[in-house]
Structures are given as structure tokens and as C-alpha cells.
Amino acid sequence: MAIVRDLTGVAEQNPAIYPGQVTIQEEDPTVFETRFLRKIKDLGEGHFGMVELCQYDPLGDGRGELVAVKSLKPGSRGQLACHLRREIDTMRELYHHNIVKYKGVCSEDGGRSTKLIMEYLPAGSLKDYLPRRKHQTDLQRLLLYALQICQGMDYLGTQRFIHRDLAARNVLVDNESTVKIGDFGLTKSMKEDKSYYTVKERTDSPVFWYAPECLVDSKFYTASDVWSFGVTLYELMTYCETHCSPTTVFLEMLHPTQGKMILTRLVETLMAGKRLPCPPSCPDTVYSLMRRCWETDPENRIQFKELITEFELLLD
Ligand code: ADP
Ligand code: MG
Fold first, then answer.
1. What ipTM did this prediction achieve?
2. Do residues 83 and 187 lie in contact, with contact meaning Cβ atoms separated by under 8 Å?
3. Which of 57, 68, 123, 128 has its CA 20 to 30 A from that of 171?
4. pTM above 0.90?
């Protein structure tokens, strides 16, 4: 047996030695070719990239699989390309039930630009999904989503990653009983953080998801992700409705005048111990978990493992 195996090995490495044998060229299933990728529609746009629904149809019979393809917005190159590259490297290493699955990459312009190919989740992000499904989604279901986000985040922590942009817009819905974390690795350097603070359209500014240490020192810990999870939990409990979104409520609390004032006032407000209010019809037990995510000192915050235990108890 050992000899047969050894000979097979030799044949694979040196196909020319055995001319009679047909060698099957193993294709790398994570390499997608541009020419077979057909755009169907836009799925969304974030700070750096855009995501499109495409069909990958190498056989040309219109039955190829649907995939979500992330690329940089036109015109953005250089440093931003680096972020997408890093996001690809991150996603490639992650494998968890509650994390969007990496499928591969697609190189263009002779390798000068790369697109990220992911599994396609037709229901979109929680932010798209929840407001429409309010009446079909009860408290138990919201807590199940919260539990799954914590399970994905706990795994991420064990893999020594910090997400840095956890928010309902970055959690995707697989089916009505499964959500997955997406949008990885767009690491925010200090310079980009500043551009966030001065953003003109404030609607999706991530500052309202950031912990004080991120706002003040640009330091991110796993505990900073816990803070952002608390804000995401708030979004879940408000069914991601815009009129009571973190952005809307914080802006009402701050009465800011200019872009730069927002950040200063937000830090003052948080340091004074003020927090997002308990959403209507959110049980005290759930609000108290949010508050434990929003301890000023990162060391005092609840951890994802403990959150998992708490949500499991609530779901029992
Ligand atoms: P950005 O880094 O630009 O914020 P995201 O990865 O958050 O990019 O994607 C932006 C939006 O595109 C998401 O909020 C979601 O609506 C949509 N989207 C992203 N990935 C997928 C996917 N795999 N399936 C379906 N929709 C997706
Ligand atoms: Mg995003």
C-alpha cells in the first residue's frame, strides 16, 4: 500500500513520467475569474467599499451560484486597497456559524485590484431586515440574534481579532433564525478615525458605537467591541428603527452645532455617565446587560463569554 501511495505521489509531481495517465488539474476553488462574474445588482455601500450581488457562471448556462462581491468604491485606491486586502486576509482565517463565509478572491487589472467574494445573504443586514419584520420578530428571536452575535464575537476574540465596527448594519441575516457578523478588518488608522469625526452626512457615523477609549485615545480592545455590542443590542431592541437609532438619540442628547463639536460633546456626555436610554418594551434584565457593556473602564465591562451565559439563561 505504501509503495502504491508513494508512486501516486511521484505521478502527481511528475506527470510527464506517466504519459498514459490523465492528470486532473486541481483548480483552486477560491480563485474566481472576472470574466465569469456577472453583476446582478448593488447590495450596499459602506465607508470604503461597495458590495454587489453577482452570479458566478463559468459554465455560461445561467445557473451559476450567487455571491456577494466587495470591491473598493471607484476612484479609491492606494491605502484603501490595503484595507480590503487586510479584510480578505482576516476573513480567510475565520470559520464560524455566525460569521459570514469567505469564498475567495477575484483579481483584476493583472492583479492590481482584488475583489472579495463572500457567500450571499439575501435578507441583507439587520438594519434592512428588522424594521420590515417587526411584527414577526418577538423578544425571544431578538435575544437569539444577540446570543449568536456574542458567539461570533467570542470566536473572533479567541482568534485574536478586534472587529472595530460592530453594528446592526454589519450583521447579516442568513435566515429568520440565524445571523452572521460581516464587514471585517477595515482597520481604522488614526487618520481615518479623524475623517469619521468630521463626516458630513452623520447618519451612519460610527462614533456612536465607539467606547470612550476609542474616542479619546483611539485605542481598541476586545472590550471596545463589547461596548459596540451594547449599542448593537440597543439597535436590536429598537428593531433598528431610524427615529430611535443610536445616532438620532445621541444627537438629541448632545445638541451639537458642528461636526467637531459632536465628538467633544459625546465624550463629555459619556464621561458624565450618560448612556442611551432603555428602549420602549425592553425588559430591565436586557437593559442592565447593555449597561454592563457600557462601563466607562474597559476592565469593568462584561465579556462576551458571560454575555453568552446570560442570553442562554434568558432564552431557557
Ligand atoms: P462596508 O465596509 O463598505 O461597510 P459591508 O461589508 O458592511 O461594507 O457591506 C455594506 C452593505 O452591503 C451591508 O450593510 C449589507 O447591506 C450589504 N452586504 C454586505 N455583505 C453582504 C452579503 N454577503 N450578502 C448580502 N448583503 C451584503
Ligand atoms: Mg459596513
1. 0.98
2. yes
3. 57
4. no
